[in-house]
Amino acid sequence: MLANIDLTREVTKADYRKAKPDLELKLAALQRRARELGIPVLIVFEGWGAAGKGTLINELLLPLDPRGVSVISSLAPNEEEALRPFLWRFWCHTPARGRITIFDRSWYRRVLADRVAREVRGEALHEAFADILAFERQLGEDGTIILKFFLHISAKEQKKRFKKLEAHASTAWRVTKADWKHHRQYDRLLKATGEMIGRTDTEFAPWTIVEAHDQRFATLKIFSTLIAALERRIAEKENATKAVRSKPSSVELPAELKASVLDRVNLARTLPEADYRRRLKRGQDRLRELEHEIYRHRIPVVLVFEGWDAAGKGGNIKRVTRNLDPRGYEVVPIAAPHDIEKAHHYLWRFWMEMPKAGHVTIFDRSWYGRVLVERVEGFCSE
Known about the structure:
- By secondary structure, this protein is of the alpha/beta class.
- The chain has helices at residues 13-37, 53-61, 79-82, 88-91, 113-116, 123-141, 155-166, 177-184, 186-200, 215-245, 255-258, 273-296, 313-321, 339-342, 348-351, 373-376, and strands spanning 41-47, 69-73, 100-104, 145-152, 207-211, 301-305, 329-333, 360-364.
């Protein structure tokens, strides 16, 4: 795939100076309109070392209102991040509606550098691809524009740029031993990158390969790609708004909500007091032992309590935690989302609370509110 890319493409200085101002004005206007319509934008920059990610991100930022943009530089996970699902730290930085988040490297480290270093392989690699696709699909279906740029340069060009950086004291620090190691692994990384792009290039999160030998050409391609995506989504959003306004407001309950499996539950079941006390004590003691075991084996645990108001969720949670070490668990009560939470994907506030490896998080109500109270009261569309 990447081997067939024409890396000689370039733009003259005169053509660049003529085209760029119009693109900048258009991009600034589209950012304002996207903010008005509440469209979140997520942009990923991946590519070879010294391909120009920092420079091109800076070029993209210049025409934008900085109050609506965040840039996340993704390094290796720290100790806290390593104890959580690998996507957790990226979920936490996904954009709110109307904002733009730019990732300088991203979750693709998992299936590139970590893969080539043999830290992720076999079933773990397959699961990583599945997790990435699910993550991007969830955001895409929620209305997030996802654009992924891979900045491509040849091994020869990369070596030349590394040497140029090393030749100056002010930039030599930017080239590390790891950079040279990855340069020696160029062919292996090239193969892994081709497979990564092939497996994750989707309609909801497409890849754009940017020929990055010529900075002017790369800049114009990135600007044009983002402008086209914003124009397309803004038009879709405006047309959808018109369609909603003309739609009848009456809503018929789906057939599955008129009859329920709960109708067949036996609510008359009881337990003698003595049996209850004995079994409760035994269960609480066993939970204490298991809490130590999950910490030792670094297993994260999520408990979800759903149910009617006054059904006893709080009392049950109190009994579950009675003998537990308070340093190993957290109870998260879920109320109606506040303004910041409503501005994000509905799962965002739950991802923020996911437990570290070896810890327990107990949710008093959960993400199921999306298909329960929010569905019934009309806060969630079909």
